[in-house]
Amino acid sequence: MLDLRSDTVTLPSAAMRVAIAEATVGDDVYGEDPSINALEKRVAELLGKEDALLCSSGTQSNLLGLMSHCRNGEEYIVGQEYHTYRYEAGGAAVLGSIVPQTIEVEADGTLSLETIEKRIKPNDPHFPITRLLAFENTHGGQLIDQAYFDKARILADQNGLSMHLDGARLPNAAIASGRSMAELAAPFDSVSLCCSKGLGAPIGSLLAGSKELIKQARRWRKMVGGGMRQAGFVAVAIDYALTHQFERIQQDHDNAKWLFEQLSELLAGTEAKVRYSGTNMTFVELPDSLPADSLRELMTENDIKLPGGQKLRLVCHLDVSREQLERFVELFKQWLSREH
Ligand SMILES: *Cc1c(COP(=O)(O)O)cnc(C)c1O
């Protein structure tokens, strides 16, 4: 079975399951789960922040981050296509009463600093109070230039704003840039890190920031029902992933690039567009003359799962091997000779 839909689909290995079975746990709401306490300390250090908080998902850690920065009626500036605006069911607005000010995302995954500057509201009772800039790295699998974030930090400081990073795929950004996660997180006041994507843990994200911010986030986490008890079983799986499954992310990047090269070659001379994100994703946009439905049908018959639509996002992860990709490319070739 090969599943190219997302890097969230990975399954825990036998060794990770042993770690889970042997976890020492306690009641985390009392602060007494040693595995969680150790993980939060480890991740705070990895991200170069004072403290960290284990959350049920990236959506939750982003929500707690936004709510810890902004009070009701305050505003965050965010990309139109960023997860914290578009893919989190409007949680910041619904649960935090936080106003989103969206900005079109540039081709390189950033937001124009000139546009941000124009959107920052003056202190006037007509306007919401601008409080936060929210960014993403990687965005759509694309690594963001660190020099950009350094410039954004200057703009934020000039205007008394905080910065939050949705680092759902920060491990991919670290591997692709050769920088540590702490370096990448340095310009930000808070960072959300997903452990159930490239790292391959089954559950969990962490929010990192100052002691004060995490104290606030812990309160919000309780309020939204995220105070888990013996969640050390989750923490040890993440700890295992950080130790054993971080460096191997390079293989996912190599695989996605290889896939890009193979598909580019096969699709040369067609109207299809193939693009490599630079990390673990390759995108194929098929013209109407090459219906993705028949491709999906063939792949389903061969136990391969693809996303819907004519624009396919193919994601490499822990459970994707080069052999499986070779088989996929072979089938793709068969399909193409039939359709073309
Ligand atoms: C996956 C993802 C998240 C978090 O998603 P959850 O499914 O809630 O863990 C946040 N931001 C980005 C950019 C993501 O890709």
Please tag this protein with its features.
alpha/beta, binds pyridoxal-5'-phosphate, single chain, 12 strands, 340 residues
Task: Write a brief caption for the model.
With about 350 residues, this protein is α/β, with parallel strands linked by helices. The chain is built from 14 helices and twelve strands.
Walk me through the structure.
The protein is an alpha/beta fold and 340 residues long. It has 14 helices and twelve strands. The strands form three sheets. A seven-stranded mixed β-sheet has the order 2-8-7-6-5-3-4, with helices on both faces. α7 links the parallel β5 (129-136) and β6 (162-167). The longest helix is centred in the C-terminal third of the chain and has 19 residues, at 249-267. Bound molecules: pyridoxal-5'-phosphate. Pyridoxal-5'-phosphate is lined by residues 57-59, 62, 83, 136, 166, 168, 194, 205.
The main pleated sheet reads as: 7 strands, mixed
Secondary-structure element pattern, one letter each: EHHEHEHHEHEHEHHEEHHHEEHEEH
Based on secondary structure, the structural category is alpha/beta
Quote the average pLDDT: 98
Q: Low-confidence spans: pLDDT under 50, at least 5 residues? A: none
SSE topology:
Layout: E1 2-3, H1 14-21, H2 34-46, E2 51-55, H3 58-69, E3 74-79, H4 83-86, H5 91-96, E4 99-103, H6 113-119, E5 129-136, H7 146-158, E6 162-167, H8 170-177, H9 181-185, E7 190-194, E8 205-209, H10 211-223, H11 232-244, H12 249-267, E9 273-276, E10 281-285, H13 292-301, E11 304-305, E12 311-315, H14 322-339
Parallel strand pairs: 1-11, 3-4, 3-5, 5-6, 6-7
Antiparallel strand pairs: 2-8, 7-8, 9-10, 10-12
Helix pairs in contact: 1-11, 2-11, 3-10, 12-14, 13-14
